[in-house]
Amino acid sequence: MSGGREINAAIPVTVFLLISVLLYGIYDNLSGEDEGSEMDLVEPVWDYEHDSESGYGSVTGGFVYRGQNVPELYGKYVYGDFIMGKLWSLEIVDDNPVNKLLYDSKADTSLTGNPRISVSSFGESEDGELFFTDRNTGRIFTFNQTDSGIVVESFKPDISIPFLIGLYNAGDSSERLFGIEQTGRIHAIGDFNQTEIFLDISERVESTDWEQGLLGLAFHPDFENNGIFFVTYTTYDDGTLRLSKFTEGSDNEKVLLEIEQPYVNHNGGHIEFGPDGYLYFGLGDGGKYNDAFDHAQNLETLKGSILRLDVNGEEYAIPSDNPFVGNDKGYREEIFAYGLRNPWMFSFDREIGDLWAADVGQDKWEEIDIIVSGGNYGWAFREGTHCFDSPFEHYDGHSCGEIDSWTFGAFLYERVLLNYPLMLILLVSIGVSTRYKIQIG
Could you tell me if residue 89 is inside a domain? Predict the structure, then answer.
């Protein structure tokens, strides 16, 4: 009688290794403690879940409305979502957030005829009236109030600025608005239904990815007298994020700060002067996903934070009351707040002075924050108010106590397939085992 049959040893060895890797991945997802629960994190004032239909969202920060045309909005924070095409108002009543849908462009396509408005930015006029922009059509819209309630209207409908991602006023009593064309131009919008080029640095700007380009504009508080303004953009040669100073009527550039970007997304780039006269500068975590490069919780890097800079000299200086000034731990003293994924648009309440920021989420949650000095906003321990699992080793020991399919897949890719020594051991083990047979039965 036959003594059974033989099989190649590579089969059970391969099965054993695969099961071992999967069990290790499950253990990594479920083991450990939620490290974020032990940290002093600043909670968002509001978060919302991605669109259940598309599965995506991308919050665009706005302003606390302080104009006169829409009394119903006065004192409320107005913001939107680039992917979902919606606009909301948010106010804090008795310490509780009250969020109200103002406009759903997917449900009402009459303004553009497109499936949605891609809400790319908000802007204020000098007297506090509010506008928002559509990157797809390059058009500008504003708010009004009628007997039937709040309405959204076209503003200068003959004007269309390609890849429009920012809208600003200069505070110089000219009543002009300035629109950022992502590819590298700034358009001045005056009384007529046409624009003039205010600045063109398109030959210096890299805008291949939709999160790269000319990203920020801020006019010096004394722009009316000194003509100084500041821009941020990703550079054409290597995608570095650059902060530069210009003077109106000149293209002479003074580079103040350059920050290397390891990936093409999550550049941030918004800049804004605060009521204290300092320049605030928002930076994403360096891109990819899950804070892959260990920046958001790392105070030794500028990424994943909002900086606070004194830009009144030839070089930038660090304000003496920045939260990490004088530390002996190697923390960057430029940092005002940190733990952010990709802050896109922030603004100061012109009446109270609060700094409101929108931080773009990843898996499920978009968030609205009020930024405070030294605040840690939780990424990548938190997405919004919710526990978040990152598969990378610098977040080891952090667990939400559940198997998340996306994080589990990222773990297998980043920690196994891209772990070349481990992959070499696995392949050598399988290769050696092919030389042997195992008797079955």
Answer: yes
